[in-house]
Amino acid sequence: MNIGHATSALPPFRRVLVANRGEIACRVIGTLRRLGIEAVAVYSDADRGAKHVALADLALRIGPAPAAESYLNVDAVIAAVRASGADAVHPGYGFLSESPLLAAACAEAGVVFVGPGEQALRVMGDKIRSKRHVAGHGVPVTPGSEAHGSEGGVDSTDDAALAASAELLGYPVLIKPSAGGGGKGMQLVDSPEALPAALASARRTARAAFGDDTLFLEKFIQRPRHIEVQLLADGAGHTVHLGERECSLQRRQQKVVEEAPSPLLDAATRARIGEAACAVARSVGYVGAGTVEFLISDAAPDQFYFMEMNTRLQVEHPVTELVTGIDIVEWQLRVAAGQELPWSQEQIRLDGHAVEARIYAEDPDSDFLPTSGRVLALAEAHGPGVRVDSSLLPGGEIGSHYDPMLAKVIAWGPDRASALARLDAALAHTVILGVDTNLAFLRGLLADPAVQGGALDTGLIARHLEIQAAATPDAASAAPSLLGEMLAVAGALLHAEAPAAADSPWGDRSGWRTGGAAATRPATRLVRHRGTHRGEQTETVFELRSLPGVGGPGSLSVSVQERGADEACPAVHAVSCDPAATTLNRATGVHVGIAVDGVQRRWSWARDGEDLLLSAEGESTRFTVVSREAELQGELARILAARAEREGGVAASPELRTPTPGTVVQLHAASGDAVDVGAPIATVEAMKMEHQVTASVAGTLRLHVRLGDALRRDQLLASIDAQAPGQRQGIGNE
User: Fold this and answer.
1) How far apart are CA 671 and CA 720, in angstroms?
2) Is 380 helix (H, G, I), strand (E, B) or coil?
């Protein structure tokens, strides 16, 4: 789809600084280039080699990796503006995009802030104040803590006052940061007992993400739908809406899949909710692009409640661009330069349907914990009706300092069914190896009958996960239709990787030997590590043997056996491959030509040390190739553990490792404490999300980290000296 733009050949600015990073910085730079505007990027030390830096005409360092010292540092951004000679600043979304301080600093520096004025930022940037404000203009709002207490509402810094307000609202309630958005710090609380810990966690997250820990409560509407309206407004008082977006597919209050238009609304409700959104914008003299978010009960689709206004570009803006043909970033720039909107509301038309899926660096099999790593193989989707907004580069490092979103895949179609089908195909053709992602989860979600039928609400993903967990209780057997093929492909790749002398029978990889029939090659053991939705780790060991092929050059058979299974019944797969395609003379390969049992897929692979990574149809798996030495060490460890158990002793102390790279923000116990199974030990914050590490056994705790420590993934956090059977705390030599 081509995005429509103005006919004027004059760019609205000469040089624009993009005060952001990642895919949104890349997306804004794309429009700047099309308009002939010089693009200035800023970067932290962690982003020195990032894609947005490479795309820009000029890039300036603004500080160390922590966002507070770089992307959230107003002084550093303004210093970059002055050094670059930029005449405007585009803040993207997140970070300083809704900061009145940045808007004021830009005005003082004599540059244009591409966003609304300070009044709109201050009124709508405070979620409590904004609800009171729009209620005064006749817009319906969800019941919340701001309606209790004095005229100014409940004291949002007083947890006791918020607890009293929760009792009045009735559980369940939502905790929301007043200064934030994007679901950061938002928590659903079902009972009074859970409220204190949830408030403390929400305050920490809000303080880290937005520099403001003010909170408020909202009554949680059962089975709600989250619908938002995109606005554009100019300085001459013209305000139009560009239709609505359905954003109900969320996990932990974070949007995952969005679409435009909503399959719920009819034309009359669309007009009413659009006018309500325009009324919100006019009430603060809004100028620029903005979004007004509403909750709608699925049971009463003609009733909607204002939640908040986002005074910036939204992550999901591409679906609106694809159905309207309007480049929203371009019109942010043109309106900021003083140009007027060229359309009336009646001229805005919605054409077809668009759906967007967010690709995150996370592990769905380990409760969606954020992941990190290096991009070892990359192939992004393309084709009719497909758009990809991405910050990914081959070889790029994905760290733990920032939000885990890597890219967005968006598909347009003449109707909803065709848009969903195109999106699913685009995800199937996307390859990202080296860092775990949610690609396979997204394809499974799109196939859910409720999603296909448009019966959406904000709790659908949680129910989808419960159904999937019940259907596949053994996480190691996920994607059974592909697992066997993946193992066969792994065997072919490892067979090709093994050294062989071309002119010597001793190096012949066919299995030939003197004095008898062809023999199989020694078994190669692969270990597949998988998480579960409880955060536990499981592993499955497979044995592979390459057998002589019968299909001519490049053919072989691979015998696959799960270790411990019936030795008499291994699965045998016939593999046909292009020898050149499977020679591992490089670190990665994309779309290698391998057929398994007559079926050829778009296989992609990468090597990461002893690990072999494989991907097909959006499903990725990491296998660890076990050497003979490692196998013997494992056998020895199992023998020693069995002996210790027989003798009534205690095996090696269980180790607690951090599930994700992050920072220790809370310690719940100290070294020397006696802990029970399941007791909280530490809270680790990663990418603005908190993860609690709990005791795996009962015993005496030994901490190996301190409060505030920055941790690597799988770093030893604590160990527990487990109690032997019959041992009791406090009983010593008497």
Assistant:
1) 9
2) coil
pTM to 2 decimals? 0.79
- Residues 6 or more apart whose CB falls under 8 angstroms from that of 181 comprise 98, 308, 310
- The per-residue b/e assignment along 517-536, b for 16 or more CB within 10 angstroms, e otherwise, is eeeebebbbbbbbbbbeebe
Nearest alpha-carbon partner for 579 in 487, 484, 500: 500
Alpha carbon 542 to its chain's center: 30
Look at the block and give the residue holding tokens 């403001």: 212
Question: Rounded CA gap, 126 and 253, in Å?
Answer: 19
Report how far residue 423's alpha carbon sits from residue 69's, in angstroms, rounded to the nearest whole number: 38
Gap between the Cα atoms of 450 and 460, Å rounded: 8
Number of other CB atoms surrounding residue 581 within 10 Å: 16
Dihedral pair phi/psi, residue 570, rounded to 5°: -75, 155
State both tokens at 68: 């507070």
DSSP character for 326? B
Q: Over pLDDT 70: what percentage of the chain?
A: 81
Cβ contact 226:247 at 8 Å: yes
Query: Residue 569 is inside which H or E element, if any?
Result: none
Candidates 442, 417, 415, 416; CA nearest to 429 is 442
Helix, strand or coil, per DSSP, at residue 609:
coil
pLDDT in tens, 561-578: 776 665 556 788 888 776
Name the band, by pLDDT with cuts 50, 70 and 90, for residue 301.
Answer: confident
Looking from the CA of 156 toward its CB, the CA atoms found within 13 Å total 25
DSSP label at 533?
T
Helix (H) or strand (E) holding 298: none
